[in-house]
Amino acid sequence: MDSAAPRVYFVYETVPFINEVAMDADVLVVGAGPVGLALAIALRQHGVSVRVIDRAPGPATTSRANFVHARGSEVLDRLDALSGLPEESVRAMTITTYAGERPVMRIRFGDPGLDTAAPPMVISQARVEARLRDRLAELGVRPEWGCGLVAAEQDAGGVTAVLSDGRSLRAGWLAGCDGSGSTVRKLAGIGFPGVKLSERFLLVDATLDTTLDRSGTSGWVHPQGMLGAMPMPGGQWRLLAYDPAFTEDKPGEERIVERMARILPERTGLSGIRLLDASWASLFRVHRRLADAYRRGRVLLAGDAAHVHAPFGGQGMLTGIGDAENLAWKLALVVQGRAGERLLDTYEAERRPLATQVLRGSTATTKVNIASGPVGRFLRDRVIVRVMNVAWVQRRVTYTTSQLWVSYRRGPLGGGGRRPRPGDRVPDLACERPDGTSTRLHAELRGRWAVLGGHDAFQAAHRRLGGHVVHLRPVRALPAMLVRPDAHLACKGGPAEITGWLDGALA
What we know:
Blueprint: E1 10-12, E2 25-30, H1 34-45, E3 50-54, E4 67-68, H2 70-78, H3 85-88, E5 94-99, E6 102-108, E7 121-122, H4 125-138, E8 144-145, E9 149-155, E10 158-163, E11 168-176, H5 183-188, E12 194-209, E13 217-220, E14 227-231, E15 237-242, H6 253-268, E16 274-290, E17 295-296, E18 299-301, E19 307-308, H7 316-335, H8 342-369, H9 374-388, H10 391-402, E20 430-432, E21 438-440, H11 441-445, E22 449-452, H12 455-465, E23 469-474, E24 481-483, E25 489-492, H13 495-505
Parallel strand pairs: 1-9, 2-3, 2-11, 3-8, 5-13, 11-18, 22-23
Antiparallel strand pairs: 4-7, 5-6, 9-10, 10-11, 12-15, 12-16, 13-14, 14-15, 16-19, 17-18, 20-21, 20-23, 22-24, 24-25
Helix pairs in contact: 1-4, 1-7, 7-8, 12-13
């Protein structure tokens, strides 16, 4: 929605709840991109009713984000939305950097040995969204396209939303998953401070006449700006070039493609490379922004509505769907009356520090990639390139970008002691169900908690969580534990420890 649109308002009033006002849904999700779809699916897995609206006329068909790290695949798996995507993806797990035709650095991505069955994938965001929509339809919900949010008013019992077609919807909660220009964030009056990090990047998805190796991404350092080529499913390539010298104000896709076709052989040093058919082209600048708050009353933000950063490292969609999964189980407990609203404050407390860390990392990577001065170029081309060829550094890069390291142990639901600590990610352990059949921990979560321990521990969790908890026995010996629906450790111990943790966390 244009920020200059008339009659956009948001009012927050503390008034008594009016029982006669019927709810259209427990949660109204604004935005049918990957974050909004992931949130809606996770809420439905917990039995929460949702409506999903989006002002776009229909689903996006362009790729935008095109890399899903292992953590993202794990989230999709727990949403039961991973099926088919690994088979469609390109297994391009290397990045080779060239100076002209000379390779100077090679990084390999993949599983950094952190016990995950979910593969990193090169795949179009459009395909990920399509699979998420299919999964949401299986749960009885379809996005309402061409339906924007223009106004909202919240009170003590819920939110009344006014839509672009003149209708009003009543929901208990409003979730803004509507991107960097979020209408929900603006209506809620939540600040979104930030800075511009770069001038223009060109982005083109196209087929190429080239002998480039499709088993990995290729990048070139060049005095006029970096250029990268990533293989995409269907034989296409994603081309990305930093091009501050391209100063046209609002170039169309044809002009962007023409510019990319011209600089492609210049920056790669490959005289035989040619750009053929382009399916999409865009121009963007990199900004760094972070919302002042993730919640205001009954309004919550997730994904790009809450944080925006550089595309380097493939952290955008990854961080956004992680937000959605973290928020969903907490909001579900509140909606169902099993937890107090204080639990929702842990959403921001756990996810905003991660966004801050991602922003710092992507900002540093952007500055390295666009360095144009002699000192910056020397550090990038002579120092950083050599350091990045060291094996343990590459393992660290893989570990960092995968987000399998994410822990909430320092947050309000975390804790200390021996590893795994409360708040740590629990790997996708091989387990057995009570009947002895084999399964995986993450496959059993899917909207549920898990107790790995004795029957008494399971009963303690069941009394507080109802049917949204499963009893498992790990194949290898481990301490008894309660695992959250997002695969992070709630607590270790038997019935007393589980009851104490739930009483404190859900108060």
